[in-house]
Amino acid sequence: MNKLFTTNYTEERRKIVRIAHIVYGALLTLWTIAVGVLFIVSCVGVFKSAEVSPFTVEAIDAHFTKIAVPVIILPCLIVAGFILNLLFPLEQKSKTGTDTKKALASLAQKVNLENVDSGAKKCAIRERNFRLIVSVAVVVVAICAIVISCVFAFDASRYSGEEVNKSVANLTLVVLPSAIVAFLFYYGAEIAKKVSRQRELALLKECVKKDSSCLAKKGENVPTYEHKIVAKTREIYNKVFSFFIRNGKWTLLATRVVVLVVAVVFIALGIVNGGMADVLGKAVRICTECIGLG
């Protein structure tokens, strides 16, 4: 029994654990779908009920009590899955190869491009400039998408109290495409940068393979060929990032305090301007008068 509670699986035990996880995943998926279907059927039964007052607490309770057991079993299955992962976790697959970004960052600090042939040097610098341009383009596209969305969203003249659905639809037709374009551009840029890093990494490895003298000596500064503005920005970013890392505990505490203060302020504003009473009134009308779940 003790041999079973281990991550050092034999091939046979690894297969059994994998099958157990597959079966559990399939069971949880099917059970979740079944509970959803039962819930929908129960709601339809409430609306089609022949009772005089189908939206009372008693009527709702009578309909949903019938599906109480499957609903209770669902969280039990979730807890069972947690226990399964805790006692018999799936063995993590070993990564094939190394992280290109980390490998390139490490090798770029060791290879002095001044000691390689001019062709290889130009190619390496070109790849670095390409990634910089792509990163700047991503920021520009994201800012443009945010500005376009905000200009449209905060234009009060575009909203009509008589045609609320049309106003929301028009807003969606502007904001959603902007977000999709920004996301696709970012995704494509990440792929392009990954390919560029792979090309530069292969180039540097080839340079070291041909002539190991291009490796920087101990204490030697390797030029990065970055523009002064980029180098200064990177330096400031590293300092700020390292500050937050060193003071992670206090940073987290400050963030939580700020979020708490903002939440309290907005809650207070809602109470003062009568928003709380409006929300309560809507909740009462929707939950108790319409759906009957109150």
Structure description:
This protein is mainly α and 294 residues long. It folds into 3 domains: 11-87; 100-226; 247-294. It has 9 helices and no strands. Helix 1 runs antiparallel to helix 2 (57-64), helix 1 packs antiparallel against helix 3 (68-87) and helix 5 packs antiparallel against helix 6. It is extended, with a radius of gyration of 30 Å. The two termini are 50 Å apart. The relative contact order is 0.08. Residues 1-5 have low confidence and may be disordered.
Task: List the SSEs and their pairings.
Layout: H1 11-47, H2 57-64, H3 68-87, H4 100-108, H5 118-153, H6 164-210, H7 228-246, H8 248-272, H9 275-291
Helix pairs in contact: 1-2, 1-3, 4-6, 5-6
The whole-number mean of residue pLDDT values reads 81
Helix content estimate = over 70%
Low-confidence stretches: 1-5
What fraction strand? under 5%
Q: Terminal Cα separation, in Å?
A: 50 Å
Output the structural class: mainly alpha
The DSSP helix count reads 9
Q: Please provide the ordered H/E string of secondary-structure elements.
A: HHHHHHHHH
Shape verdict = extended
Say how many strands there are: 0
The largest sheet, given as strand count, sense and whether it forms a barrel, is: none
Alpha-carbon Rg, integer: 30 Å
Total number of distinct structural domains: 3
